[in-house]
Design brief:
6-stranded mixed beta sheet; 420 residues; Alpha-Beta Plaits; Maf protein; 3 domains; Molybdenum Cofactor Biosythetic Enzyme, Chain A; 26% strand; 15 helices; alpha/beta
Length: 420
């Protein structure tokens, strides 16, 4: 079932307010069979609203509007829609009384301007708003269906979940649009596409979108026009095949955080972790401590930005700093060992690099980062050159460090399984 959304508000067009309602609506309706195919944003202007709704009805016959239902002069959505469907605005006495009672319950007198919120196109169904004073309205006519919702995000979401989604589900008759996001890291978008894109043609018809970010590349798989169960089976099959091709590059699904994944792996082994950070200045520690319950694994860290503190707090040798420089494999490994020694943790993780914008050389350009992980009797250091500005480089380095230790644990677990 295809539908369109018209978001209304000068503040949206001026950039003072971000439109979160369109994303929420698409996510809420897809699982019940509603597919948002177009989103149009217009000003608080009756003519603009009318044109947008009329055009959308001509394309899909089902339109949802967001905004313009308040009590002030710029709230003109109801009048614009009533003109399109050829219905008069009438005062809903029942809802007007409910409004008065709501204001009275809060010890306030209802302003005269709030009376307009009890108006509705004749024949419209009132969708009760449990949070605010503006109800939603469901209008059906020969032109199609127009659903008017308030623009306040909390009210929009409450009405979408309680009133709109169930009605859309009934019209969609059991079909759904179901998506699944697979999270990857440490693999470029182009390589990822070359590796798995062909699966979209061989599986149940589905779309495959690649969504790069500082954390990696998410793969969004979407199946439409199937029942929820059929879609789930198809997505499970696709995920299994993608896992076989990607191996450890795929670390989770949906909103999984790599720091949370790493804490889970270490916790299952009964091991603790400490970090030594230079250019990231505590970003890895912040990622880890943002996870509830991380204290069972994460014991702490050292931010050693200067060479002097690297020597004093992490036992980095002056010879290593003089011979190889702070941004080097040798120093990264000494930092990882040193933080283990100083804290008694079973695992140590370190980062040292050139985040920029200055400080780069021909041998070590801006974005050069050395990462090291020390776990048990095994150690590994890797060099990366990350693109972007200073913040981008630091965020990418923190993600790469977490991934380095995660992969080392996975290899260690595999070796133990083979030896048993």
């Amino acid at each position: 079932m295809e539908l369109e959304l018209v978001t209304i508000g000068n503040e949206l067009l001026l950039g003072f307010t971000l439109d979160s309602n369109s994303a929420y609506l698409a996510r809420a309706l897809a699982p019940v069979g509603g597919r948002v195919v177009r989103n149009t944003t217009v000003a608080d202007d009756g003519k603009a609203i009318g044109e947008a709704v009329r055009d959308a009805l001509a394309r899909t016959g089902f339109v949802i509007t967001s905004g313009g239902l308040g009590p002030t002069r710029d709230d003109v959505t109801k009048k614009a829609v009533a003109d399109i469907v050829g219905q008069q605005l009438v005062l809903d006495e029942t809802y007007l009384q409910q409004l008065r009672e709501r204001f009275a319950a809060f010890g306030r007198r209802m302003a005269d301007s709030n009376r307009t919120q009890a108006e509705r196109p004749e024949g419209a169904t009132v969708l009760p708003n449990p949070i605010g004073t503006a109800p939603g309205l469901w209008v059906e006519s020969d032109a199609g269906v127009v659903v008017m919702l308030p623009g306040v995000p909390s009210e929009f979401r409450a009405l979408t979940d309680a009133q709109v989604a169930p009605r859309v589900a009934a019209r969609a008759r059991g079909t759904a649009v179901v998506s699944r996001t697979l999270r990857t890291t440490g693999i470029p978008e182009s390589t990822l596409g070359d590796t798995i894109s062909h699966l979209a043609d061989s599986l149940v018809p589905m779309t495959m979108a690649f969504l790069p970010s500082l954390a990696g590349v998410d793969v969004r798989l979407t199946v439409a026009d199937r029942t929820s169960e059929e879609a789930r089976i198809a997505l499970d099959d696709a995920a299994r095949q993608i896992d076989q091709l990607l191996g450890p590059a795929r670390y989770g699904e949906e909103s999984d955080d790599l720091a949370d994944i790493l804490i889970g792996l270490l916790g299952a082994r009964g091991e603790t972790l400490a970090v030594a950070e230079s250019c990231t200045g505590g970003l890895v520690g912040a990622r880890l401590t943002a996870i509830p319950g991380s204290s069972r694994v994460f014991v702490g860290g050292v931010i050693a930005y200067s060479n002097r503190l690297k020597e004093r707090l992490l036992d980095v040798t002056p010879a290593a700093l003089e011979t190889y420089g702070a941004v080097s494999e040798v120093v990264a490994l000494e930092m990882a060992r040193g933080v283990r020694t100083r804290t008694g943790a079973e695992a140590g993780l370190s980062i040292t690099g050139v985040a920029g914008p200055g400080g780069g050389t021909g041998e070590k350009p801006v974005g050069t980062v050395w990462l090291a992980a020390s776990l048990g009797t095994t150690e590994r250091a890797i060099r990366r050159v990350f693109p972007g500005n200073r913040d981008d480089i630091r965020q990418r380095a923190a993600q790469a460090a977490l991934d380095l230790l995660r992969r080392q644990i996975l290899r260690d677990d595999e070796e133990q399984d083979r030896s048993e």
